[in-house]
């Protein structure tokens, strides 16, 4: 059963179009100027496209979504799905498979390297023993029984992150190229928004909430090299991997790593110009997303920018995922329905943000940006 699910999922995962980007939301305007669509190796990805629905039919409270929920709730089936889901990501063997190992992500080598390193010493210096984890964070997640609180999850986080870009841009000739498009469009959307609405405030301080093993933090630090960047995450395992990697990188301002909860960071009010949440919210229940957005508002200075990038409910590719694939995905992502149901733009407005804009920055993901008013 697991093998069948894995094989079918592998075939389905190959789907994906890159068409002209579209902004979404009532007050959105089209912004395509800085979108990276030219691929380095000469492949010609199309531009992102919206589907015809508000959100995928397999999400939310539709009969289809409830059926998938019932299948996942059946424990023996859930166990098989969990295995299959992992298999699809790591080592599917179908010819056109675009997932990790077939896309030249050296998944097992990267994992081994972390597990056999001195990361365990870094861990001791980074974890806050007094931190109280939110309840949602203590559940099994991403096919790991201990969720993000384990060494295996931490060691596999970077290859898993790399596979996000490859899945978003299956036409890309390499992982690097896919990352340049996915991360490049996200960074350009941030820069463009900040330039337009910050009233000429420079980006001096950046907070990357849910930084995981630091991939997004490093991209932000490289895009804004004169800024001081802080990466914050609930997983001390992930942070240890991030900090260990950062030790080998030389840059103008060293990244600081904080073990904390993005809903209550304990960081001073009005102390950041940019708060980023990259691929965090689909992993959180709606109440936590609201908490994260409110806390971002508190720590941002007037004119500061919040940016949130994650799965777009309007993505045509996501709306057209195969039943096998969305079932597998939902089996290891317990909060997807809540994420897709939440009106993120409205949540930002409710928190006090203005100039809320949403743009499809690749075929699967939207980047939502907004400003703290002066
Ligand atoms: C998919 S990862 C983020 C990847 C990373 N931002 C990037 O773009 O490479 C999601 C992260 O959010 C973190 N997270 C979830 N809830 C959080 C919270 N309330 N506060 C801080 N981090 C949280 C998880 O520990 C996990 O590392």
TrEMBL record:
<dbReference type="GO" id="GO:0008168">
    <property type="term" value="F:methyltransferase activity"/>
</dbReference>
<feature type="domain" description="Methyltransferase">
    <location>
        <begin position="206"/>
        <end position="304"/>
    </location>
</feature>
<dbReference type="InterPro" id="IPR041698">
    <property type="entry name" value="Methyltransf_25"/>
</dbReference>
<dbReference type="InterPro" id="IPR050508">
    <property type="entry name" value="Methyltransf_Superfamily"/>
</dbReference>
<protein>
    <recommendedName>
        <fullName>Methyltransferase domain-containing protein</fullName>
    </recommendedName>
</protein>
<dbReference type="Pfam" id="PF13649">
    <property type="entry name" value="Methyltransf_25"/>
</dbReference>
């Amino acid at each position: 059963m697991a093998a069948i699910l894995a094989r079918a999922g592998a075939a389905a995962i190959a789907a994906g179009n890159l068409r002209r980007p579209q902004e979404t939301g009532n007050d959105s305007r089209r912004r395509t100027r800085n979108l990276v669509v030219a691929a380095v190796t000469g492949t010609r990805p199309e531009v992102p496209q919206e589907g015809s629905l508000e959100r995928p039919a397999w999400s939310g409270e539709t009969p289809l979504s409830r059926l998938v929920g019932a299948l996942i709730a059946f424990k023996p089936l859930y166990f098989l799905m969990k295995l299959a889901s992992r298999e699809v990501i790591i080592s599917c063997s179908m010819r056109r498979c675009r997932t990790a190992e077939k896309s030249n992500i050296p998944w097992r080598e990267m994992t081994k390297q972390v597990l056999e390193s001195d990361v365990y010493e870094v861990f001791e210096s980074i974890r806050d023993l007094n931190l109280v984890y939110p309840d949602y964070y203590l559940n099994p997640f991403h096919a790991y029984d201990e969720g993000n609180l384990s060494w295996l999850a931490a060691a596999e986080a970077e290859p898993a992150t790399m596979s996000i870009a490859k899945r978003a841009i299956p036409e890309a000739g390499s992982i690097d190229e896919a990352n340049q498009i996915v991360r490049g469009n996200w960074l350009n959307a941030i820069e463009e928004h900040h330039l337009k609405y910050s009233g000429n405030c420079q980006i001096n301080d950046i907070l990357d909430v849910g930084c995981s093993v630091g991939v997004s933090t490093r991209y932000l630090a490289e895009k804004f090299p004169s800024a001081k960047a802080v990466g914050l995450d609930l997983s001390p395992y992930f942070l240890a991997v991030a900090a260990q990697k950062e030790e080998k990188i030389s840059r103008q301002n060293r990244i600081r790593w904080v073990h904390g909860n993005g809903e209550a960071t304990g960081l001073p009010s009005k102390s950041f110009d940019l708060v980023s949440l990259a691929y965090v919210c689909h992993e959180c229940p709606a109440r936590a997303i609201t908490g994260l957005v409110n806390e971002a508002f508190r720590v941002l200075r007037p004119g500061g920018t919040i940016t949130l990038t994650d799965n777009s409910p309007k993505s045509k590719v996501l709306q057209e995922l195969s039943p096998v694939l969305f079932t597998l995905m939902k089996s290891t992502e317990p909060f997807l329905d809540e994420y897709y149901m939440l009106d993120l733009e409205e949540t930002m407005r409710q928190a006090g943000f203005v100039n809320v804009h949403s743009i499809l920055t690749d075929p699967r993901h939207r980047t939502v940006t907004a400003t703290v008013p002066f």
